[in-house]
Amino acid sequence: MSRGVLVVGGSSPIGQAIVDVFKDDVVHAVSLPDDVSTASGASSAVQDVMELAGRLDVVVLAAAYMPVARVTDTTDEQWQQALNATLGTAFAVSRAALPVMAAGGAIVAVSSVNATLAAPSLPAYATAKAGLEGLVRQLALDYGPRGIRVNAVAPGLIGPTSHPDAAAGYPLGRVGTPGEVAHAVKFLAEATFVTGAVLAVDGGLSIASPAAFLRDDLLRRWQS
């Protein structure tokens, strides 16, 4: 029996790849976070899946907005938009979805390594993603007794890049692909004894010491 799947943020490269890996299910993809960041919009998206599939089994929260600016240069609008796109949307959609999800249902959020690893000029994005991981843990605790699992993936740099040093600091020596993130999302949607987890999909970035890549002597030793 096919599952009813709601993908929020389905127009991004990662979102499109997630839709693709659930191709055997009945998938409803919402492209714009603004469409589901309100109670009415979130309820409408959930109802669409219920009408298409007769059930809601998996919710993927992949919406985000990433303004690049230091705190002193971040506008009120950028701050609110980043929080609303990622965290507000996750809250609204989860609140609408949970009442109709049966035991065995799963919510998977797309977080980021920036939730725990600071990078220059990403205060709004990093804060939103850190809040998203906090929400994942809370939902996992509160709804685990109903048999509903809530997890997240935390990707590193994903997609093609022309920067010659883009993979510096990645032990696997390359950046990731949207498909690799999507398969991790599907794994968590189906991993029946995993909840409250944040799965790093980052080529080892989050376990690598920056010193090993900043100091030439350590880099040579590691590569030899």
Secondary structure topology:
Elements (H helix, E strand, L loop, with lengths): L3 E5 L4 H9 L4 E5 L8 H15 L4 E4 L14 H22 L8 E5 L12 H21 L5 E7 L22 H13 L7 E4 L9 H4 L1 H8 L1
Parallel strand pairs: 1-2, 1-3, 3-4, 4-5, 5-6
Helix pairs in contact: 1-5, 2-3, 3-4
Q: What features would you describe in this structure?
A:
This protein has one domain (4-223): Rossmann fold, CATH 3.40.50. It contains seven helices and six strands. The chain has a six-stranded parallel sheet with strand order 2-1-3-4-5-6, with helices on both faces. Helix 4 (123-143) links the parallel strand 4 and strand 5. By secondary structure, the chain is an alpha/beta fold.
Please describe the structure with a list of short key phrases separated by commas or semicolons.
Rossmann fold; single chain; 6 strands; globular; 7 helices; 224 residues; alpha/beta; 41% helix; six-stranded parallel beta sheet
Sum this structure up briefly.
By secondary structure, the chain is α/β, with parallel strands linked by helices. It has helices spanning 13-21, 39-53, 76-97, 123-143, 178-190, 211-214, 216-223; strands at residues 4-8, 26-30, 58-61, 106-110, 149-155, 198-201.
The helix/strand series, from N terminus to C terminus, equals: EHEHEHEHEHEHH
* Distance, first to last CA: 51 Å
CATH topology value: Rossmann fold
Biggest sheet, open or closed, and with what strands and sense?
6 strands, parallel
Mean pLDDT: 94
**CATH architecture designation:** 3-Layer(aba) Sandwich
At the fourth level of CATH, the homologous superfamily is: NAD(P)-binding Rossmann-like Domain
Low-confidence stretches: none
For the record, the CATH class is: Alpha Beta
Task: Give the helix/strand class.
Answer: alpha/beta
- Tally the helices: 7
Principal-axis shape? globular
**Any idea how many domains?**
1
- Biggest sheet strand line-up: 2-1-3-4-5-6
| Number of E strands | 6
Oligomer designation: single chain
Computed CA radius of gyration, to the nearest angstrom? 18 Å
Query: Residue share in helices?
Result: 40-55%
